[in-house]
Specification:
Order of helices and strands: EHEHEEEHEHEEHEHEHHEHEHHHHEEEEH
Largest sheet: 6 strands, mixed
Number of helices: 14
Shape: globular
Structural class: alpha+beta
Low-confidence stretches: 138-142, 148-152, 228-237, 239-243
Strand content: 15-25%
């Protein structure tokens, strides 16, 4: 029986299908720390409750019902799956004990494994997965306002997925939809009969069109004249267009896709300190995302003292241009790049006593780059140029052995808030809720050397993760970078 094709993959989606088929991109993940009602006392009750709620979410979101065919060709497509077996896609358990590792370190290790794993059998199974693990100890954050939580049991739910289907904000949308269904689940004790683990996919299946169909994309005459389109290769958005070489760690390399490993390091900032940081950003005419650029540039310039220049890649959502709801599960992003010359790097390598002024100035500089990209959008944007790229596999294959495309990336999902029916002050004691969000991406092989991924919860903490391909950077450099970025963020709050 021929596959039930829903639609062909769009140009933005082909970036992910081609990279996944080449083994140079695996998944992204959004992890929510869930507060579980006291009435859920057994793993069977939890499994039944999750299956029941997830089944409803799946039926409401076509992106969760699709397989992918012909990923290794120029014409990948999404197909409707007949059914989804939750026994395969939902894993509930505990993290392996490690006497020398904290729970958070073991969670990071588990998420890294998810981010390192390719999606098998794309034509017969959905390319998403849930991993539920019980939090076995109190969080070890250093902030006093994140300690001493005696609320009901908590689970971390890791939602990992293929980037072709969903962007980062879709991870938020998924958790919001799941939380909504859990809120309306029957009482925990009502588990007879247990829910069926097989979810029958609705037919026909209506998948949102690719992002390009929402926009009047255009490449200006100036850009057409300046580049030969047949050999353009997205140079406006990659390393080959830069006059001076920039530092980006080791060259892009993956001799054996089976040996790929994605690495992860994260830290959290509690809500009271985060509020002070946000007030400081506002007072200096900038934002948290922008300030992170400044902090990273200052820290990395000193950790890599011979670097000639940096370039940063920053994804941003285009849902505001397409009219797509934040509750939809789609892939709708573009990218803005920012460059930092030798002159800038030398300027921040000096006296550290005025680092905050340097950080705010660099933050405002980034906002200018971002505003320029948004003002011109969708003319001469990355999405516009993709229409001229005919061989996605060839484009990414030829990047192996070359310098990486960027020094670093900053991807900020913003603030997660629960379903509209939930009060913003938080759910009542003993009910389902989400206390923290962690956003991660697999370490890039041909893109940036390290990615900073941010997510926060309304009235809760900000969590920043660093993800990188093992071997892209020296491990000690990443540890020092993470520590310095956290220290500098806290310094903005006066702590």
């Amino acid at each position: 029986m021929p596959p039930d094709i829903v639609r062909s993959a769009g140009n933005l989606e082909k970036i992910s299908t081609s990279r996944h088929s080449l083994g140079i991109h695996r998944s992204i993940a959004v992890t929510g720390t869930y507060r579980v009602p006291d009435s859920l006392t057994t793993s069977e009750q939890l499994r039944g409750t999750i299956w029941r709620a997830l089944g409803q979410v799946i039926k409401k979101h076509a992106a969760l019902c699709c397989g992918i065919i012909d990923e290794d060709t120029a014409r990948p497509a999404y197909i409707r799956l007949d059914r989804i077996d939750l026994r395969y896609n939902v894993i509930i358990g505990k993290l392996p004990p490690q006497s020398t590792m904290t729970y958070q370190e073991r969670l990071e290790q588990a998420i890294s494994r998810e981010n390192s794993t390719s999606w098998p059998e794309l034509a017969v199974r959905p390319s998403w997965k849930l991993l539920l693990v019980s939090r076995e100890e109190e969080d070890e954050d250093s902030d006093e306002d994140m300690k001493g939580d005696t609320s009901p049991a908590k689970f971390d739910i890791v939602f990992s997925y293929h980037h072709a289907l969903l962007d980062g904000l879709s991870g938020f949308a998924f958790h919001r939809a799941l939380l909504q269904e859990l809120r309306y689940s029957p009482a925990a004790g009502d588990v007879t009969p247990p829910p069926d683990p097989i979810v029958v996919v609705p037919s026909p299946l209506q998948l949102a069109p690719p992002v390009e169909e929402f926009l009047k994309l255009k490449v200006s005459r100036r850009l057409l004249i300046s580049k030969t389109i047949s050999h353009y290769k997205l140079n406006k958005f990659s390393s080959s267009s830069r006059e001076a070489p920039f530092w980006s760690g080791s060259k892009a390399d993956l001799p054996d896709p089976a040996l790929y490993i994605s690495r992860l390091r994260s830290f959290s900032i509690g809500p009271s300190i985060l509020r002070r940081i946000l007030r400081a950003c506002h007072a200096h005419g900038t934002t948290l995302t922008a300030v992170l650029h400044g902090i990273i540039v200052v820290a990395l310039a000193r950790l890599a003292p011979t670097a000639e220049a940096f370039t940063a890649s920053t994804p941003y959502s285009v849902r505001g241009y397409t009219g797509t709801s934040p509750d939809e599960l789609v892939n709708q992003v573009s990218i803005v790049e920012s460059s930092y010359s030798r002159q800038i790097l030398d300027g921040v390598r000096g006296d550290p006593t005025d680092d905050s002024a340097k950080v705010y100035a660099l933050g405002r500089r980034f906002l200018t780059d971002l505003q320029g990209s948004r003002t011109d959008f969708p003319v001469d944007n990355m999405l516009s140029v993709l229409a001229y790229l005919k061989d996605f596999h060839g484009y990414f294959s030829q990047k192996l052995g070359q310098p990486r495309a960027a020094t670093f990336e900053v991807s900020n999902l913003g603030v997660f808030s629960g379903p509209p029916s939930l009060p913003q002050s938080g759910p009542p004691q003993g009910a389902w809720g989400i206390d923290r969000m962690l956003f991660t991406q697999c370490g890039s092989v041909v893109g940036n050397s390290v990615s900073f991924n941010c997510a926060s919860v309304a009235e809760g903490p900000l969590t920043v993760s660093l993800t990188w391909q093992k071997g892209a950077l020296d491990e000690s450099l990443v540890e020092d970078l993470a520590a310095q970025v956290e220290k500098s963020l806290r310094a903005l709050a006066g702590t």
